[in-house]
Amino acid sequence: MLFSNTMKNRSRIHALRNAAFVAAAAALAVGFSGCNKKDAAASDEILIGHYGSLTGATATFGQSAQKGIEMAVDAINVSGGVLGKKLKVIVEDDQGKPEEAQTVVTKLINKDRVVALLGEIASSNSLAAAPVAQSSRIPMISPGSTNPKVTSVGDYIFRVCFIDPFQGQVMAKFAANTLKVKKVAILRDIKSDYSVGLANFFVEGFKGLGGEILSDESYSQGDKDFTAQLTALKGKNPEAIFVPGYYTEVGLIARQARKLGITVPLLGGDGWDSSKLWEIGGAALNGCFYSNHYSVDDPSPILQKFVADYKARYGKTSDSIPDAMAALGYDATLVLADAMKRAQSSKPDSIRMALAQTKGFMGVTGNTTLDENRNAVKPAVVLEVIVDEKGNGRNKFKESVSP
Ligand code: PHE
């Protein structure tokens, strides 16, 4: 894996852009003057970039996506690669921070000269980096960012997952129709575009089904103590609490809620999906539910083969069950390779045009068809969290909801 030195300010970014311009001009000059060995060697590979949180509070998002991407790249390369070339992924750690995401994507484009980007998972990070990809005309595929604004950045930005207006509706229906609760409280992360958006879509959906929102509390990513908000919520006696956050905070929230005597189910979205959730939240998470992109309980043969291959490859680590990011990272890579094959080209503009025409691509997370807004339309699943005393957890499939 390659890690970049972090560039701390925009002037460095501009310097890089200028340097890249000079480099491009030089390459052009070499091109005119005849053939050059370095070009010939480089052209055996197609370079793609992956930027994600390999460290930090959402580290499992980037790590899992990278595992899925590695598996897909190896599968593609073993069967001959793309257009007779091998795919090569350059990985950059953005530490789960939006500014870093922008910096590393600038580096991947201007220095490494990748033809396409995979990333990010967390919507705020995708939103920070997407304008760089868009203005540089490099196609970007987010495996898992579900906030609707991400692909609205422009026509070079795609995703292989559903979006939050749908995900919010799925959990609103689950609360109202399956759990049959009428009064819900919200606890949202106001630092996260994902959390704020998903909370709003849930509220809209739940009210539409006749439900009532008793209170709407907030926290900021990185917070450790949620006692004040939970105490306020408890006073309203909700029948469930919707917590559309990321696993680190959600795990702590679950523990602190139970400690305060809150016994009602906590509900959430895909941001819960991490084996770390079980470790952090422990048995406090029993009886809680969240929506997700896929379930390992799904008997689909392509999915079961992926689960088995993943375990064979990464099984020695604690997280041998592939989470949704691993599956989406895998599918995003296959969708990208498929677009290059259909385009018969690895030029960014040609890849973009072929990506926009992705229809019925069968992957681990189901069928990917990209709509006119470059979003995938896919079913969601609702999972129940089950954790034993030792913090060993699993997700039990409850239901699947089609768009
Ligand atoms: N959907 C989340 C976001 O947009 C990220 C995520 C995707 C988390 C898939 C877990 C699984 O921020």
Write a structural description.
Helix content is 45%, strand content 18%. It has helices spanning 10-33, 37-42, 59-78, 98-110, 123-136, 149-152, 164-178, 193-208, 227-234, 247-259, 275-281, 301-314, 324-343, 348-356; strands at 45-52, 86-93, 116-118, 140-142, 157-159, 183-189, 212-219, 240-242, 266-268, 288-292, 361-363, 366-368, 380-387, 393-401. Strand 4, helix 6 (149-152) and strand 5 form a beta-alpha-beta unit. Helix 3 crosses helix 13 (324-343), helix 10 (247-259) runs parallel beside helix 11 and helix 13 (324-343) crosses helix 14 (348-356). The protein binds phenylalanine. Phenylalanine (PHE) is lined by residues 61, 121-123, 144-147, 194, 270-271, 273, 324-325.
Number of helices: 14
- Spatial extent as radius of gyration: 22 Å
Q: What is the strand tally?
A: 14
The average pLDDT value, as a whole number, equals 91
How big a fraction of the residues is strand? 15-25%
| Distance N to C terminus | 37 Å
Task: Give me the CATH superfamily of the largest domain.
Answer: Response regulator
N-to-C series of helices and strands: HHEHEHEHEHEHEHEHEHEHEHHHEEEE
Kindly name the structural category. Answer: alpha/beta
CATH architecture of the largest domain: 3-Layer(aba) Sandwich
Which kinds of small molecule does this entry bind, naming each only once? phenylalanine
Give the biggest beta sheet.
7 strands, mixed
The number of domains: 2
The geometry reads as: globular
Which CATH first-tier class of the largest domain would you pick?
Alpha Beta
Tell me the helix content: 40-55%
